Amino acid sequence: MERRKQALELIKKSQKITFLTGAGVSVPSGIPDYRSINGLYHELEHPEYLLSHECLMKEPEKHDQFIKKLYHLEAKPNHIHQKIAQLELSTDKQIEVVTQNIDQLHRKAGSQNLTEFHGSLMECYCLKCKQQVSVSDYLSSSYHENCGGHLRTNVVLYGEALHEKSLGQAISAVENADLIVIVGTSFQVHPFCDLIFYRKANAQVIVVNQEAISLPVAHFFIKGDATDFFQEIMVD
Q: Which residues does the annotation say bind Zn(2+) (predicted)?
């Protein structure tokens, strides 16, 4: 309990905070995570292949079938998304968010200084003519009605390079932070987990997660439901 109080006090006192968020942040909104027993990868033999550039090129229908299961258009920002946005919009703190999530819930909650590290499901385009299309168009057909080209999301797939702008923004967000808060992620996916190496030597780190993660720096670990923890964060 003392560690929890210290973590909350750090958030209260810190001026430059960067949140690194993963799938666990969106679970309270009804979006399943990837690797838990109830996650999207459970009982799938090669889930990473289904989310790969190779699958998109070789077996586009199999890729589309899986990626369309990732859509949860009814999902709304939960208390974690909302509290992070409130810290940015209602205080004089400098708040940055770098998220692995592709659901845009941070954006819907109002976060402005946001880097969607792996892209977004909510942006789709045609591989042939490069024209942007709506999510509803993609969900109704995997082929562009104008040119017949195959449609895809703007999610960064396995085997694809990260968007250079997103990578630069993420590194800058970590470099500038006095406090880094890692929330709802196993912190195993590269290069997202490598962002921690860009922290300042004196920057503090808090981890809020259901399970401990492997981290090469000293940190406050708050085990349990992140929603409970974020409800205790005060916004002046």
A: 126, 129, 144, 147
Query: pTM of the full predicted structure?
Result: 0.94
Write out residues in the chain with pLDDT < 50, as ranges: 36-39, 42
Residue 147 in marked binding region: yes
Residue of 138, 147, 146, 213 whose CA lies nearest to 181 = 213
Residue 126 in marked binding region: yes
Residue 63 annotated as binding site? no
SS (H, E, C) the chain: CHHHHHHHHHHHHCCEEEEEECHHHCHHHCCCCCCCCCCCCCCCCCHHHHCEHHHHHHCHHHHHHHHHHHCCCCCCCCHHHHHHHHHHHCCCCEEEEEECCCCCHHHHHCCCCEEECCCCCCCEEECCCCCEECHHHHHHCCECCCCCCEEEECCCCECCCCCHHHHHHHHHHHHCCCEEEEECCCCCCCCHHHHHHHCCCCCEEEEEECCCCCCCCCCEEEECCHHHHHHCCCCC
d(CA 70, CA 65): 10
Catalytic center residues: 118
Pairing verdict, β 179-183 and 204-209: parallel
What does residue 177 show for φ and ψ, rounded to 5 degrees? -80, 140
Delimit the domains of the chain by residue range: 1-30+76-117+161-236
Superfamily of domain 1-30+76-117+161-236: TPP-binding domain (3.40.50.1220)
